[in-house]
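Input record (Table S2, row 728):
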Amino acid sequence: MIEFDEKKKIFHLKNSYFSYVLGIEDFGVLAHLYYGKPIDSYRGARKYPRIDRSFSPNFPDAENRLFSRDTLPQEFPNYGCGDFRESAIVIEHNDGSVVSDFRYKDYKIINGKPKIPGLPSTYTVEEAEAKTLKIILEDSFSLVQAHLYYSIYKDRSVLNRRVELINKNVAPISIKKLVSMSLDFVGKDFEMIQLNGAWARECVIERSKIFKGIHRLDSKRGTSSHQQNPFFALLGKNTDETQGEVYGFNLVYSGSHEMIIEKDQYNQIRVQQGIQSSQFNWILKENEKFSTPEVVMVYSSDGLGEMSRTFHHLYNERLVRGIYKEKVRPILFNNWEATYFDFNDDKIVLLAEQAKQLGIELFVLDDGWFGKRNNDRTSLGDWYVSQQKFPEGLCETAKRIRKLKMKFGIWFEPEMISEKSDLYRDHPEWVLHIPGRPLSKSRNQYVLDFSRKEVRENIWEQMCQLLDSTPVDYIKWDMNRHLTEVYSVGVSSIHQGEIHHRYVLGLYEFLEKLIARYPNILFESCSGGGGRFDPGMLFYMSQVWTSDNTDAISRLKIQYGTSLVYPISTMGSHVSAAPNHQTSRNTNLQIRENVAMSGNLGYELDLKKLTKEEKKFIEEENHFYIKYRKLIQYGEFYRLKNPFEGNIAAWMFVDKNRKNAVVFYFKILAEPSDPIDILYFDGLDENAEYEIEDIGRYSGSELMYAGLMLNPEVKEDYQSCRFILRKL
Ligand code: GLA
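Output record (alpha-D-galactopyranose complex):
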């Protein structure tokens, strides 16, 4: 998987999916040579031409006018010595200077994939699955070393990159920017895709040209954010779902982050991804190390669909942990849109009884069970059970629900605090705030300073007290505002630039401890829906509440966009009431079911408002889902029709042996005189015969290449249907 040509000074990382080549150039500058389709053995065809470019400084050899870093494709570009593009690093030395010049010193090849201390990452189960190249660079003036890690999996089109910085100098440095990955492409006329959005409108796929200059896609919100998922892709102009080159990049991190796409004066493209640099200033003392989060890089020569399936497999198999890894997820009922804050023990048990009758397996008690929480103005931080709502204690309610042979789950928002709470009264200094400066509220709440041990310990004890006394099978971990006035009174002024990242490290430390202590609990991460849908959280929590928007039509786009990177097994999706609480749209129950069961199916609506027929329908739908959920949650996922492009969406799930498949088809608005629509299936065995339930027998090749013609005469809005395929 990793070869080093001593003579030519070239490293070649390769498997059957891709090659990645880097070389040690003149003066020990680490150059990027190639990333793409696998090549057998690299002999040096990509030697970057020596050109005398005006206004490109010649460093370190002033006499050699043919060599400049300003144009050279590199792996770890420096700041301040001749490359005027974005640098991979900015450090301030003790003398106030900010120049660095990292050059090759040594390398090491490691079996497997080392863990990153304190940070989530993809992993190996067997050491032989991956190899890691560690390249040691040094700035010989400051004695600071940068260790670049490249891990390649044997059987996946995945390369992981990250950096570790070590200060070997007695004098401290401050790190102002350190990307996890910097990569240069020459001669590629790429477009780019990003996943931007907003609350209740997550993962909007935006494809655009790459203009000269710098595109900076980022979050400064303290979380990975609804607004900009930590993912981007570069792709050829003709690349689509099924063909063409794509390079996907996803940062395994849950805090503020940045992605840089820079097209330079010679149309070369530099991309970078890492922690948000504008909020970052990390002091590194003698012999201290700093590790960046990792970037997962996926290469596909077969379009976006193949890229997504590579991400899905990797995340299901080598990111998610715990007992729910690759295990089917239960159908849940969540009381939020059914009751909001207005409930008590009997109302909850009644809902659970009704849910049970519909075939629902897990009851989730959402916000409002603790302190005096009857609205969103109070009690975050007071994680003890509301006496008023549960006079006999929550344990009793949980037991009553479990007696129904249902699992019981509960909501927490541990990183937050209300001004009206016992915790705030006792510890106002525990919120992120700047003494003497007014403090922003958002959803009436403040953010607890999770960078501080004593704060985490208090919340830990409160949570353990509840979890040790109540049978809990599931936790929804929520986070309902972004970080402002980021400052910790727990550390001195010079360390304030570390707090954004220390907050995330504190959160990760807490989550690691929590999942270790409660290994049987199913965790669902949430931040007002998909505000923290990132691989960092997936390392601790095996599913995410995809969006607060439960409207089936909005969800077509949200789930389609989310599926670009994240597996179906991780996407929580619920059937809710009509008219919908976010959009007021009135959709039929069938489409709400079909959209919600294209992920981890759940329900959140007032069950007593359902008619007898609706209840019967839901029960049947749940039977259907239970029969096919393994295929849906873990099958190969193919996007067939893109709702961002028109009135129709379709996708399908195929099992590993291509024996069974389920296809979902949605027509959003009824239109008179619509053209014929042809549905081309995907992922089938072209030589096999398939039976489509209630329709007929066709060969795989016929379904994929000729396609099924669909009658366009739809009489009502929001129509949907399913096709069930079985190989004969
Ligand atoms: C957030 C979540 C919702 C719900 C509420 C409760 O908005 O995304 O699902 O849990 O909080 O306050």
